[in-house]
């Protein structure tokens, strides 16, 4: 008798405190909204010029540089070599950040081929190969076995490096940089 009373009491307690699986709260309910907000900002930034009207204190990305509104116009500071300005979703709280980062650069490289125009001294990743600009066109060199051309955030200073690395190591470095 005592055993069944304990079982019934435990069953009632469990059912009163149970949360249906589909009702459980997402530990980061803002993650999706942050991603959508960052995408919208990046789309909006494409329409801006240094002369676009703005409000004091407003930040944006204009022509690939980080822009701050001063005197109702954007003052653009170009990003360090190898990076571009864009909005990123925050990871640990609601919102976005506007920053110079390598992720956008890696995305831009996906659009390149050996015939893409370039500037002398420019390096890039083209179709997974390390590429250098020679006479206005990229000359690609394959990475050694198991490696591909990757854009990596620098550790001790602003900017990026372009080098042959494993995709897993490159992603780990980017993830680490985004945490800090």
Structure, described:
- The N and C termini lie far apart (59 Å).
- The chain has helices at 2-17, 31-45, 102-109, 167-179, and strands at residues 59-62, 65-70, 73-77, 84-89, 96-101, 123-126, 129-134, 137-141, 148-153, 160-165.
- The strands form 4 sheets. It has a 3-stranded antiparallel beta sheet. A 3-stranded antiparallel beta sheet has the order 6-7-8, with no helix packed on it.
- The model is unreliable at 1-24 (pLDDT under 50).
- The protein is built from 4 helices and 10 strands; from the N terminus they run ααβββββαβββββα.
- Helix content is 29%, strand content 30%.
- A hairpin with a 6-residue loop joins β4 and β5.
- It is globular and about 50 Å long.
- The chain has 180 residues and is an alpha+beta fold.
- Residues 1-18 form the signal peptide.
- Keywords: Signal.
- This is 8083_t:CDS:1.
